[in-house]
Amino acid sequence: MAGKQVAGCLIGILLAVCPVLAQQHIPKFAQRGLGRFIYQTLNDTSSTASSRVLVFPTAGYAPETSLEIGVRAFSLYYAKDDTLVNRLSEIVLYGFVTLRGQFGAQLENAVYTDKNTYYLLGRARYQQFPLLYYGIGPNSKRANPSLVNSSYVQFRQRALRKVVGNLYAGPEVDFQSLQGVSFEHTDLAAAELPLGGRGSTTLELGVTLVYDNRKNILNVRKGAFFEAAVLRNVLRTENFGFQRILFDGRLYRPLGTRNRVLALQATGMFINGDVPFNSLALLGGENTMRGYYLGRYRDKNLLAAQAELRWLPFVFSRRWGGTLFGGVGTVAPTVSEVQLNRVRWAVGGGVRFLFFQKKDVYLRADLGITREGTGIYFSLGEAF
Q: Is Transferase among this UniProt entry's keywords (predicted)?
């Protein structure tokens, strides 16, 4: 959960960084075993074109899950090892188990084929893991959220083809299934459960248009990204009839020197019809409105924006950097009901460490602060 997760292995790696970097020769501890692996990872001197795989354990704790142990693997590569024409592709695999028998796995992909002709962007996820349900709308209360246990499956994929220049278009599919649902620690009567509170299965099909001139999606120093999509649920067996429109716009500008970057993002989601609660627009998480639990606020319509100032790296360091960020966002049942006094804010900062020197990819550790608390996040690559 946001604010309570700790990636213990990452902290250990970071603690090992300073003495390693202080050495001009290979230290004794780095000549064999785990020490050698850590040293070679932190001092990667392979060519930019070489594919790289990073695997590390993770750990976390939250009252509703107890201790969580997992493994995260990243694969970074250029199609045909061509760094001049092709863009950096990323595949991420993550799996975890908890001491309470909960588990899950997730595969994310942002893959460019040769000459960037095709762009495959999506995720597949399965988990038996509790989520917190605070209610629907911008006025949902923080106190006493319901604990929702369920089995959840999602498959979302965009298969995009280059139309001209940096413009891509193609079909999108989003399948979601929430089964075995039970609400615990709740004051809701059975008749008051949200739509989809007894389970749901939806299949959204649509079209996506993307403009993307970014070279390195994990650390963008200059460029723009814009995505617009229209989807419709075609699986009507459970009477969930709805349409979804979404957009995501991002702009990146260098400031003065190559080391400083201003990143801007605006996102929106607009849903019309009868949609299950798990498919509503969600505010919060590790990428947008950091500091809020993902789904702290949910509704049919969402608007959010954020800005981030990045020093990658600091002027006094070769590999350490940092960021400052802030964002605003809100949800509402209809666009006309969006209210300025219901807009939430989130601010924060983070530390960066240049993990893959040749590929210009940083490990990030962020602290998000909101009026309700904080969230701590660890990952490879920037939030957006």
A: no
State the architecture of 8-380 in CATH terms. Beta Barrel (2.40)
Under 8 Å between Cβ of 160 and 210: yes
Amino acid at 276: P
Name the token pair of 106.
Answer: 């997730």
Question: Which residue has tokens 């409105």?
Answer: 289
3-state secondary structure 34-65: HHHHHHHHHCCCCCCCCCEEEEEEEEEEECCC
Per domain, the residue ranges of the chain are 8-380
User: How far apart are the C-alpha atoms of 299 and 344, rounded to whole Å?
Assistant: 14
How many other CB atoms are found less than 10 A from the CB of residue 226?
Answer: 17
39-84 pLDDT, tens per residue? 666 666 566 667 778 888 888 776 667 788 999 998 999 999 999 9
Identity of the residue numbered 3: G
DSSP string of 206-275?
Answer: EEEEEEE--S-TTS-SSEEEEEEEEEEE---TT---EEEEEEEEEEEEEESEEEEEEEEEEEEEEEEE--
